[in-house]
């Protein structure tokens, strides 16, 4: 007869050749039942395959090692373990030497086998439905995550639109403008405010759908695990059935795959309608799966709780907020009113999503926007999660980083210097986040002009990273690369020389190529630095060859308009000129300039530097008149953009004077 496991889960029939072997199998099954562990878990702990476990628990006489491993895995208490192991040993010896006087146990009847097979078919059907539900829940959660990002971006846009329309309306009132124009602006403003509230509502719905999908996914996964274990148990003892009753019919289980005057307002309305449709569709999926889970017969005798259908907390409803609430006041309201753990989780989810949006704004090139977003988020996060929560500390680190990327290196140094002792106290001096902050602090010290301080900081950090992370960890390799760079920038202050820097980068490059791959961004950056410092060390021909080899790789891997690829083109053009190929330098800079003007803008520092270099190398190839004309056109732009005393402005003014009278300057 088939026994029953924990919670009523049945086993397949015991197919032993002797009564002693059957008794041993029953005893071992009882230990598995008492432990509550599944066969999958036992297979991992015992280092026996699930097939072997099924065969031995089905009646075959096992090895001593298996019996010992099973008792050890199912009996944690030492004294009980010794007792059960002794009992199992006696049963094993009896099974190995069965009494010939006793007849073997009767084989399972056809009726019993048919019953087990019917249970298998039912379990396969339920498992198939559960796996299909998993795929639907995964898709719903992904839809909600994407929708959340879209809605947060839309809310940002609407906030700016409301502000702009409010300013426009006030200006029209002050100027006593045409009432019709004023009325149209007021209508657009009202519409934008209503759209903002709708966006808040859809955002909260999407957050709730994501939470529901994740919670349901946990329940479905538990159900899949349980159904899989039940199938494993039913298969136990059925290994030889095919010889007497015919082969099982294979059952396929699906894989667990994974026309008005306000066109802007019209676009937003359409986007909100699409967001609502996605929320509605996902809501129907979640509602159906919740109903299926509630109405499905429980496999362990326990009826799951019946969660409310798409509950929405009144404490965080956006229609409870003022008509012109920003998302920050919404988050503050959520934090103040979060009196239950579920409301608190929603507030944390809003904060987390906002932090991710701020991060990707910086990664998309808007460093100043990232600084603004993180600066607005930080006080809210400190209120929601606390000032020393790891996520709050991460926000402080991101804010400091993007301050530096936005051009405020001194501000980044100050922020990182204030953050570091907090992380050392809260997270520990060797925590990965603490070490990352130390590396960032060293980097921005160098960028702020303290190259010697950067060298000292990186030199102190490197042995700690080698000990904590290992010598080939990406963070350790980054520190080696930064140390080599700032040693040269510090020059005589720390004994840095171009030849030494070349040696450092040359030693680092093969490690990066082996550990991270030849096309990893860090590897390509190291190739770039190695090429540059070869030139600084006097190998101009070598640097041209190195950049000529690196450039097509950068253009293929990162794209021809990526900043690193453009910088490589600048360096290649400049070093061509330094090797005496002024004509080649002029051609390269002439080809590059319109690309920079289009990609980075006509007044970007790199674009202005390219204009200056192009003018200089025109003079060097013999076109002094063209050089004077180019420098004359560039100088007023630099004076306006960078200031009269900026080093680039002074260099351009000096170059203009030089090429106006090249003969007097030795040309």
The description of the largest β-sheet is:
2 strands, antiparallel
Principal-axes shape call: extended
* Oligomerization status of the protein chains: single chain
Helix-strand sequence = EEHHHHHHHHHHHHHHHHHHHHHHHHH
Describe this structure in words.
With 667 residues, this protein is mostly helical. The protein contains 25 helices and two strands. It has helices at residues 19-35, 39-46, 50-57, 64-74, 78-96, 110-174, 179-235, 241-245, 263-295, 327-337, 341-363, 367-385, 390-405, 409-426, 432-447, 451-468, 474-490, 498-515, 521-536, 540-557, 563-578, 582-599, 605-620, 624-641, 647-660; strands at residues 2-4, 10-13. A two-stranded antiparallel sheet has the order 1-2. The longest helix has 65 residues, at 110-174. Residues 4-8, 239-259 and 298-326 have low confidence and may be disordered.
Q: What's the structural blueprint in terms of helices and strands?
A:
Blueprint: E1 2-4, E2 10-13, H1 19-35, H2 39-46, H3 50-57, H4 64-74, H5 78-96, H6 110-174, H7 179-235, H8 241-245, H9 263-295, H10 327-337, H11 341-363, H12 367-385, H13 390-405, H14 409-426, H15 432-447, H16 451-468, H17 474-490, H18 498-515, H19 521-536, H20 540-557, H21 563-578, H22 582-599, H23 605-620, H24 624-641, H25 647-660
Antiparallel strand pairs: 1-2
